[in-house]
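Subject: Predicted fold for Phosphoribosyl-AMP cyclohydrolase, 147 residues

User T.R. writes:
Posting the sequence so we have a shared reference for the thread.
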Amino acid sequence: MSTEATGMEYAAPDLEALKFNADGLIPVIVQDDENDQVLMLAWMDREALRRTLGEGRVTYWSRSRGEYWRKGDTSGHRQYVRSVAADCDGDTLLVRVLQQGAACHTGTRSCFDGRELTGAVGDPDGPDGEPSTGDAAAQTGPQAPVG
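User M.O. replies:
I've generated the structure tokens; pasting them so everyone works from the same file.
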């Protein structure tokens, strides 16, 4: 058991208790251990997780190619494992890595660089349910059909 800052105890996750989907996969959020930037989302099966925990390099399962892959084996942009954690439901993993070079296949540091969607932004100091910024549709709500 471990104790969080709240003083509550929690059990370390049992690998057998992880919840893989119907295809035997679990989503993996990959985060830079040095600056907390979210780098990418990928998938693992049990074997990819076993390899990741045993080798110190992250192994993923490619849904499109149907094979295992490790970031950097062809590009040189490697990911070295710093920690692996399961979320509270055991259905998602967070892998913190030391990232060398770009994480995204497009060459950007993160797969999310320059891809922000426009929309409402919540404001904890504003009235509940009222966006503080964003596009006009988000601020005014759905529009009635014309005609």
